[in-house]
Write a structure and sequence with these properties.
By secondary structure, the protein is of the alpha/beta class. The protein has three domains: about 110 residues, NadA-like (Rossmann fold, 3-Layer(aba) Sandwich); about 140 residues, Rossmann fold (3-Layer(aba) Sandwich); about 90 residues, NadA-like (Rossmann fold). About 45% of the residues lie in helices and about 15% in strands. Bound molecules: 1,3-dihydroxyacetonephosphate and iron/sulfur cluster.
Length: about 375
């Protein structure tokens, strides 16, 4: 390929290029940009994108990587809330790029800052906030909700550190209000023995979230009514079916799956936990994994000596992650080469400040906890 690139072209032109040309263009731009750019890739990204990533990880690891890189441009092959977190944690001069702005997260969209602030006011009006209530948000949420938690003594968590963070918050607060994934919240609460009737569901479309004042005063955990459209598809009958089909199989699922699935599975844990569990499993062991298809397929390719099944074939692709195609990556990278920053993710200053408070609380706590 010639070292002189043509002027920036519309994304449509990339859609008709061959896969080989696209891959070549990405690699060419990467070499030309050198250390000025870092490509981060979430484990759920498709193979033809992840192969170009400089660094891969789960949502926690990627947020730490974003806070540590010196690159001028962070090209985030993940979803919108992850790119926002990179902008919050990155250095002021760094530019964060999401190659397709349509790569959102349906779970994150299930809680808006207006709904969360309204819910908090309703809790104040009925006197629940006279107790110590900590707002905790899953990483899969908007920067504005992270900032709300930062302002109100709360924190961000991911599926990899939810247990130790719940532990410390349950010891120091009377109650927790957890957004937006009811399943991660419920599964983590259950690990601490919180009974189901003390974990109430907040429906943002109903007065008091659909609860009585008494239920909210009695609750230990208030769970926002949100869920992941990928992990939410796994059902208990998938677990029963695979156990009949594959004798001795171990069922390993992500805690974004519903409680009824998690409680009959053998193991549950974050994306990193799933990877480590398979890495450390003996040769010949059999696994049915309930998480995103790209990750499970890559594990199956990496470990041909282990029998790896998808818990529910055909059901588990994250369609929004999939929107980041190599064509979008090539387009974003060549634009950087041309001096154009396309699809930049910029969090406004005040939100950034308070969201950083909640994210840094999480990172500092997790790093201390890992050293113990
Ligand atoms: P983790 O990367 O934290 O496991 O999160 C899973 C997920 O759904 C990302 O969107
Ligand atoms: Fe959102 Fe679920 Fe996709 Fe993760 S897997 S980005 S939670 S929709």
């Amino acid at each position: 390929m010639s070292a002189v690139l043509e002027a920036v072209r519309p994304i449509e032109e990339y859609l008709v290029m061959t896969d080989a040309e696209i891959a070549e263009r990405i690699e060419f731009a990467r070499k030309e940009l050198g250390s000025r750019v870092v490509i981060l890739g979430h484990h759920y990204q498709r193979d033809d994108v992840i192969k170009h990533a400089d660094l891969t990880g789960d949502s926690y690891q990627l947020s730490v990587m974003a806070s540590q890189t010196e690159a001028e441009f962070i090209v985030f092959c993940g979803v919108h809330f992850m790119a926002e977190s990179a902008d919050i944690l990155g250095k002021p001069a760094q530019r964060v790029i999401l190659p397709d702005l349509g790569a959102g997260c349906s779970m994150a969209d299930m809680a808006t800052i207006e709904q969360v602030e309204d819910a908090w006011e309703q809790l104040r009006e009925i006197g629940v906030l006279k107790n110590k209530v900590a707002p905790i948000t899953y990483m899969n949420s908007s920067a504005a909700i992270k900032a709300f938690c930062g302002r109100n003594e709360g924190v961000v968590c991911t599926s990899s550190n939810a247990v130790p963070l719940f532990d410390v918050y349950l010891q120091n607060y009377d109650k927790m209000f957890f957004f937006p994934d009811q399943h991660l919240g419920r599964n983590t609460g259950a690990k601490f023995g919180i009974p189901l009737d003390k974990m109430v569901l907040w429906n943002p479309h109903e007065e008091l979230g659909g609860n009585s004042e008494e239920e909210l005063h009695e609750a230990k955990l208030i769970l926002w009514r949100g869920h992941c459209s990928v992990h939410g598809r796994f059902k208990p009958w998938h677990v029963d079916r695979i156990r009949k089909q594959v004798p001795d199989v171990k069922v390993l699922v992500h805690p974004e799956c519903m409680r009824e699935v998690v409680e009959i599975s053998d193991l549950d844990g974050s994306t990193s936990f799933i990877i480590k569990t398979v890495e450390n499993a003996p040769s010949g062991s059999k696994w049915a994994i309930g998480t995103e298809v790209n990750l499970v397929n890559r594990l199956a390719q990496r470990f041909p000596d282990k029998e790896i099944h998808l818990l529910a074939p055909d059901l588990c692709m994250c369609a929004t992650m999939y929107r980041i195609a190599p064509q979008n990556l090539a387009w974003a990278m060549e634009n950087i080469l041309e001096g154009n920053v396309v699809n930049e993710i910029v969090v406004e200053d005040e939100t950034k400040h308070f969201a950083a408070v909640a994210l840094e609380r999480m990172i500092n706590f997790t790093e201390k906890n890992q050293k113990k």
